[in-house]
Amino acid sequence: MELSLIISIITLIVVIVVAFLVFSNKSKDTATLDPEKFETNSKELLDKIDELKTKFMTDISTAQNNINTVIGNLGSTVGQTKGELQTKNDQILQAQQNLLDALTGSKKTGIAGELLLQNLLDQSGLVKGQQWIQNQNYKKDGSTLHVEFAIVHPSKLVMPVDSHWPKDLYNELNDIRREEQSEDRDKREEKKFKEIVRQFGEKAKEVNQKYLQSALSANFAVVYIPSESLHLEISNHVAETTKELWIGEIQKKYNVAFMSPSTFSAYCSALLLGFNSIAVEEKALNFLRYKDKLVNMVTDLCDLTAKLNNKIQGVLKSSGELDDKSGQIKLEIERVERTLKEIEKKNLN
Question: Quick check: 70 and 298 in contact, CB under 8 A?
Fold first, then answer.
């Protein structure tokens, strides 16, 4: 469809340019103008322009209907896309679990957490370098923000993503829980869990100060927890002072959300669906703006065609008047010649 539009436009412009050159050359030499041939050519040219105009407007209308159909069908395709994303989400979670099992026992838990986060983003369907970035100095409007991981919003703001996995502490907590029930065990379990919670609180504060103070951030960040079970415990923890969910208080205070592999994978799938919807809408809007511009160009060309047609009629009228004057001059010359011959004949007699 786009190729057809381009060909129609180019052909229409070429015809107009040729017509202008022809009319310019003809107007310079009206003495040699063949009115009948000129009028025939001009009519053919006008017919061709009208034909191209009609075809162009038909293509524009058809393309616009196709765009409207795509937008209309977008809602109906969401269900199918969500099903595909769910399948992909299950595959990502399985890959995360396999990688988590492979990294179990590693002492470099910080690096392991980043590897798990990178692995999830790689498989999320988001385009690296465009929709998500890694270890990059992100620059916009003269400002710079260094991020380990971030998702790039269509507004060109970034949502920082960091990982935190206190695996050793969590293993120690689970070891304590496997001991026989006792008051001492319960105290040590509570103390170890509070230490883990404290670390996550400090991480949320660090992420807020490190990223969210920048004008380039979307004022919201994610801390990725590679362990589903650890994320569940953190999510269910109730703050002692307010008796509310601790994770909710942290999000309100620092604008940081904790996400597990399943929640972050689902979040990325929702973002991907949203980004694709925005891309379709932007293409539709760009086409409509482009269509309006083309329609205006065609209208201008039609006005130019009308002006050229008026010039053609003027040239034809001038040509007719020239023929009349030429005939009158010829008759006058013949009359003068006859008079001179009669005078000469009388003189001879």
Answer: no
Q: How far is it, in rounded angstroms, from Cα 79 to Cα 199?
A: 40
Residues 6+ apart with CB under 8 A from 247: 234, 235, 237, 258
Which percentage of the chain shows pLDDT scores above 90? Answer: 27
The pLDDT of residue 240: 85
* pLDDT score at 110: 53
Across 3-12, 40-49, 238-247, 339-348, least confident range:
3-12
In terms of DSSP H, where are the helices of the chain? 2-28, 35-103, 109-122, 167-177, 183-207, 228-236, 246-254, 261-348
CB atoms within 10 A of CB 265: 23
- Beta-carbon count within 10 A of 229 CB: 11
> Residue 207 above 50 pLDDT?
yes
Q: DSSP alpha helices (H): ranges in 238-260?
A: 246-254
Residues contacting 19, CB < 8 A, separation 6+: 45, 49, 305, 308
The whole-angstrom separation of Cα 280 and Cα 37 is 52
- As a whole number of angstroms, the distance between CA 30 and CA 25 comes to 9
| Residue type at 263 in one-letter notation | T
Structural tokens at position 235: 């999510």
- Choose among 219, 211, 217: nearest CA to 156: 217
Phi, psi of 215 (to 5 degrees): -70, -15
- Residue from 246, 224, 225, 251 nearest 235 by CA: 246
| 132 pLDDT higher than 70 | yes
Length of the chain: 349
The closest of 106, 217, 229, 122 to 168, measured between CA atoms, is 106
Give the global pTM: 0.54
